[in-house]
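Predict the holo structure. Ligand: protoporphyrin IX containing FE.
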Amino acid sequence: EVITYWPILADLPSLLQNAHRVNDWLVEVANMYGSTKLLRGPFFAPMDYLLTCDPRNFDHIFKTNFSNYPKGQGYNKVFDILGDGVFNSDFDRWHGQRSLDRTAFMSNKSMISTLCKKMVEEELVPLLSSFVKISSAVDLEDIFLRYTFDLIFVAIFGRSPKCLSKDFPVHEFARAMDDALEAIFYRHVTHSLWWKLCRYLRVGKEKRHQNAWKTIDRLMAQYISLKKEDLLKEGHQQTDLLSSYIQFQKEKNKYSSDGDKFLRDSVLGHLSAGRDTTGAALSWFFYMILRHPIVEAKILEELNDIYTKSSNFENEQIPKRPWVFNPGDLKGLVYFHAALCEALRLHPAVPINRKEALREDVLPDGTKVKPGTTIILSVYAMARLECIWGKDCLEYKPERWIDENGKFRQEHMDKLFAFGSGPRICIGKDIGLTMVKTAVAAIVFNFHIELVKGHNVYPKPSLVLNMKDGMMVQVKPRFA
Ligand code: HEM
């Protein structure tokens, strides 16, 4: 049985038993009970979850009846560390924060793209080159998380934490975020009475969550005050996200009463999204490429094309190596984009999404929803349903995204919920895609990477689809 019903505890033991492999378990639940299933919690303290992986329900919840499905109080409590930022807000507060974020992202868009190329060229590629020389194995997922952290950190604060240095420093902030995320995951799979008791007693993962919170607050206060000092220096032009939020605060009295808390809450979610989700997307995309040499060869072919156009062959100059592509030049590559979308389909960085019903409703598949119901939307399980992606749904096949004329099948994007959908769709989607593509193109083009034999790659039980034991690889040069 995929779910065993227990007296008093109902379905909770099955959830606990499968917590370590929750995403694959949700696939089994969908195959056994259909694409929508109510998971019942103990009768004395309800924690019912309505699980769904039906794209019609996703559309309804994300778009058509958006106003009935906020993140809700349950989400707010579980993600309390995020404060009042965009991730953790609903209704008017969300609306206000989202439009500020949009303005901040728009005005810093080209800065982030430039930064991306610079980081790959000056930090990521040289670091990987150093592994060619010593020919020892390295954890590529760890390097990717360092790259995404450094990049988003500079985009937000205008200074680098230098995690891509050769001595692999452990950054206090990154570690605190890992601890907090882990505790938040366990809040989802245990009963709220339990984790609240652990919080009260300050034990286990809840104790680490509290310590992580303190560390994050302390470091945030430092970064914010440093930025304010920078801004006071005359003639000091700042181009980073935090400076944009400080500017908003000056212009709109509305946010000034909150002091630095407004600034902290505004940027904290971006740091986590920029580092963890983008790092996960990058790692799984690369893993798929490594497991499918034919895909790698086709991507190389596309890259070679633009390389020949951009480098200076006509003047018979020796082409520069290592070569890093301009993010803008990668945008038109159909196969490369298809390969990334296909990786995001099978390995969505955010495998589940969570909403709460405000009023009674009926979902498009006929399921009745009571007010207050928590809905878990499994993006991971949806990718593995034959009725949606066909008999070959479990295979990694970039070709499914390309039509007979060689054009990208835009209509498939309606079934790819890796970035959410509707008014709350990921605000950093373009930035995330640019970060991933710039790194992957440079690595595939300049290096020949091999998975270490015998090292298995598994997803970690977490809200972000990171890898359990990393991705150990050997780095060799692509060209002698
Ligand atoms: C490939 C990388 C990324 C993936 C797969 C991803 C995925 C997602 C998903 C699934 C959501 C939830 C949508 C919902 O609640 O319905 C989301 C929201 C969000 N993401 Fe991303 N994200 C990525 C990169 C980024 C980056 C780089 C940033 C910013 C630096 C970012 C900022 C945000 C923000 C601010 C939201 C909240 C939007 C809202 O609630 O209105 N994301 N993202």
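The mean pLDDT is 92. The domain at 12-477 is CATH 1.10.630.10 (Cytochrome p450).
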